[in-house]
Every structure is written in C-alpha cells, then in structure tokens.
Amino acid sequence: MTDARVRERTAITGIGHTALTKASGRTPLALAAEACLAAIDDAGLEPRDVDGLISFFWAQRDPPSPQQMVEALGLERCNFAAYDAQGGGWACAGVASAAMAIHAGLCRHVLVYKAWNGRSAPVLFGGAVQADYWPTGAREWNEPFGASHAAALLGPYVSAYLHRFGLESRDLGELAVLQRRHALLNRKAMMTKPISLEEHQASPWVVEPFRFLDCSLTTDGAMAVLVSGADDARHLRQSPVLIRGIAAASLGPPSPRRSRDMWDMNVRPAASALYERAGVGVDDLDFAQLYDPFTGMCLLHIEGYGLAPPGGAPAAIRAGDFALDGRIPVNTHGGHLSEGGMAGLGHVVEAVQQLRATGVRDDFCDGAHDHDRTHCRQVRAPELGLVCAEAGDSALILRRAA
Predict the structure, then answer these.
(1) Which fold has domain 4-122+217-400?
(2) CA angle at residue 35 from 29 to 40, to 5 degrees?
(3) Where in the chain are the domains?
(4) Which terminus of the chain has fewer CB atoms gathered within 10 Å of its CB, N or C?
(5) DSSP letter at 237?
(6) Does pTM surpass 0.90?
(7) Close Cβ partners of 272 (under 8 Å, ≥ 6 residues apart)
(8) Separation CA 43–CA 155 (nearest Å)
C-alpha cells in the first residue's frame, strides 16, 4: 500500500481468541478453529462468508495450515491463502496481505490467525526437523557459537544500545513494570500480580542484557482477526477499524555494509515509510502496541517509531509518557511480557479493541468505560493507533471509523 488511493479501503471487522494458558490440553487446530470462529461471529458473519486465510510461523509449522483450516471451518471457498515463515516480524504483514488481497478483488473477508502450544509443546529454535543436522544459511553463523535462541540473537543489539546511551538493566526494568501494571486490567492476561523494579533487578539473568523479567511469555492459545473491504465493513456487527497505513518489508539484521546503527534494525526506515503512507505523524498517535519479545527490543521500537528521542525511552517511561493516561500509551494490554506471547497478533487485537466505538471488552469495567485505572484500561477517546511487529519488519496505522 503506497499512497492515498488505498488508505482506509479495508478494515478489521472481527477479532477472536482462546484462553491464554500454560497447557491448553488441545491441538493447535482446535485452538485456531475456536479463535477463527469467534472472529467470524464477532463480525456477524458465517464461515461461508470467509474466502481467504493467512497464518505465519517460525522454525516449525506450529499453526495449522490454511488447507487444514478450510476443512476445520467448513469454508466454501478460499481464493487466497498465505502461510509465511518469518515469525513475529510478519504479524502486521499478515494483516497487510489480507488487505491487499481484498483491495485486489481476490477476496471479501480474510482471516489472519495464529495458534500454537508454545508453552506445553515448545519448539526447538532451529526446528525439530532440522535439529539433528548441521545448520545452514544464516544459522551457520550463530548456532555453532551458542546463539541458538532469541535472547542470545537479539541481546547484542540491545547491549549496543545500552552502551551507546549509557543505560543499564534498571532502565529495561521500567518497561516490564509498566506493562505488568497494564496487564492487571486485562482479563485474559497470564500474569496477574504486580511487580516492582526491585523484583526485576532480583530476577536471574537469562542472557545479558536480559533478566528473567525482561523476557516475553511462552503461551498456549490462539488469536484471529478478520479483514474486510471498507464498504462491506460498514454493514457488519462491529464498528470497523480502518487500515490507514501499512509497512511490510525486511532489510534483515543490521550490518556494517548498510552503515546502520546496531540497534536500528528495520524500524527507522519502516517508520518513515509507514507515516508517509498513512499521511500522519507520530504526534497524531493516541497509543502504540509495539512488539516486545524482550524489554530492550520494545525500547528500540519506541525510539525507532519516534515516540521518544534516541536513548530517551527509559526516561519517558519514568515520566509517565507511555502509561494509560500518558502522552502515547504503550502496550495497553500488557504485551508479550505480561498478557501472553502470540507472535504479535495480540497487539493487533488490542489495537482493534481500543479503537472500536464500544472500546475494550475484556478489562474489569462494569458498564461504561470510566477510565478509573483500578479497573479500566480503555485509552481516552483514541482515533489513531500504531502496531508494529518484531524488528520493525511490518507495521500498521489503524483508525477509528467516523
């Protein structure tokens, strides 16, 4: 999506999810079907109305394939399907692909879903099928040296960032505490006890610079969103959330060849393209749901998308800028750190909830949203929200329908 001709021509019209647990006791196919059927029902449609399916994975094909979902949901047709291997970097790109399929006239209603038993049936980082073989491709440059999981692979970027700006572990902990506070107002969050900065500092090291409380949760569960054409969306059950801008690409990890700072990854080029395509600036945003596999990675996203100056994210957190009543609330559901790890799709679901006319539906409000932060996490009158996937490889600007 490159210019104003395609802004707001598509919308997210349905959302669904299962419970997020440590052990679902169910297959990923059963979880995916539950979340997808919930999203279809949320939009006021029937499975026969859906004509496109998209999912994504990393290392191992843990979500059921679109072909399996056609049978499980009883779809009458599937005019477009995608099943991508770029993991959490593809969370927003999946929504972008759905929007492009609709804009091209291939489909009317496309489901984007993610399902896995990430906690009870963890995947080897290299993939179960590959584990007994010599690593190939990019893996041959990290796995023989011990970098075989996400904390070891992403830690150096965050370490470079901390060194450059004179920051330390406590600065990462500020975000963990903030997101846990938000999760306490989320009925579906896995983590339901507050934490302090002192508890963060007392948690054990995983791989420096990440302590245990810097790391995202591994989760069993599923989430789904339904994307429709904007004209169709106006006649469905929920107020539509319009897709105003999309960025979906990857430059890969930083390298001296491209003369980028080690901590920039793909965020800065993606951010400038996203804002230009959406016709908005960072000051127009009312909240941001930013991929948070680790606290430090989320800080890089905060700064890369311009929510804080370089090196300034920790100070902005301490100043309250990213709290629910702050300048730009960040990860209002608790994110991967405290709600549960669903490879970025939970961030899309939260953004849709915040932007609907009815607002968030799984906080602890009894009746209308009153913004009392003892039970309500609804942001005050949001119009525009940012969602980004891992390393800035894809992102969305979403807008509340008029």
Answers:
(1) Peroxisomal Thiolase; Chain A, domain 1 (3.40.47)
(2) 120
(3) 4-122+217-400
(4) C
(5) S
(6) yes
(7) none
(8) 40
